[in-house]
Write a structure and sequence with these properties.
2 domains, 280 residues, 31% helix, 10 strands, elongated, N-terminal domain of MutM-like DNA repair proteins, DNA-binding
DNA sequence: ATACCGACCTGTCAGC
DNA sequence: TGCTGACAGGTCGGTA
């Protein structure tokens, strides 16, 4: 499900709900896939920690933790606890829910953190492509932040890559947070074909792509932001509405600009939608 | 360095 | 209704 705008919406929603709360106890499931850190380390790091802040880095949700006075001090390792972070990647189907204790546990629940407020933070992920990790050091993500990168940095990033521009946009080591939908949507807005080699884009085209990407992400975040609360409810994503896609999922439908049917091809193993007329 | 492909998993949906 | 196969918004590792 989630790309940058969705993760941003979810992270903001989580921040509103659980910042200031404290994790009293943690249950971790026995499936190993979603766990990037050892279960015992996740439990040790989370239990007793206060949630200071929740925000998005790339496609990751980052919980900044803070040892609580009693347990952190009593455990004798307040320093190691100081900058710990709980990092969640939702993969394709992951969800972080804030539920009441009475809410029935959904199938494929892999982690439950009981909060001091009586509520629970639950990680549910049927496909188990998501990842849960704890760190004692800061996490800055694998690449640059697409929402804030300058046009110059953006151009520098792609200038030397001979990869298809679509693949380059998806490469999290360049920009983190851009997924399949917004890669397609930024390319159609910029009028650039997905199979163009990144290093063949002119300065003007890179400029257009940079603007298109930031614009489409901004619009999508704004759309998601209006339904923040629903996203992390136990009921899931009801109420979330997406921006109008111009390319993604519109194979065979007329281009909104020139009526040419949108084409679908595969680039880098991902379904890729574009307008053969508008994109060059 | 890059492209392609399978693998990792489960759910859903179209088609028969 | 039930089965099968294709496909899904993500990432990794192997191979050419």
């Amino acid at each position: 499900m989630p790309e940058l705008p969705e993760v941003e919406t979810i992270a903001n929603g989580l921040h509103k709900r659980v910042a200031g709360d404290r994790i009293d106890s943690v249950w971790v499931g026995n499936k190993k896939e979603p766990l990037k850190s050892k279960p015992a380390e996740i439990v040790r790091t989370l239990e007793g920690a206060a949630i200071e802040r929740v925000h998005r880095v790339g496609k990751h949700i980052v919980f900044h933790l803070h040892p609580s006075n009693d347990r952190g001090a009593a455990s004798g390792r307040p320093e190691s606890h100081k900058n710990s972070q709980f990092i969640v990647h939702l993969g394709m189907t992951g969800r972080m829910l804030v539920a009441t204790a009475e809410t029935e546990t959904a199938k494929h629940t892999h982690l439950i953190a009981k909060l001091a407020s009586g509520r629970e933070l639950r990680f549910v992920d049927p496909r188990r492509f998501g990842r849960l990790e704890v760190r004692q050091t800061g996490f800055s993500g694998p690449g640059s932040e697409p929402t804030t990168i300058t046009q110059e940095e953006f151009a520098r990033l792609f200038h030397k890559s001979s990869a298809f521009i679509k693949a380059a946009l998806l490469n999290q080591k360049f920009l983190h947070g851009v997924g399949n939908i917004y890669a397609d949507e930024s390319l159609i807005r910029a009028g650039i074909r997905p199979r163009r080699r990144a290093n063949t884009l002119t300065t003007a085209e890179l400029k257009k792509l940079h603007a298109a990407l930031q614009q489409v992400l901004k619009e999508a975040i704004a759309a998601g932001g209006s339904s923040v609360s629903d996203y992390v409810d136990a009921d899931g994503e009801k109420g979330y509405f997406q921006i109008k896609h111009r390319a993604y999922g519109r194979e065979g439908k007329p281009c909104l600009k020139c009526k040419t049917p949108i084409k679908k091809i595969v680039v880098g193993g991902r379904g890729t939608h574009y307008c053969p007329n508008c994109q060059r």
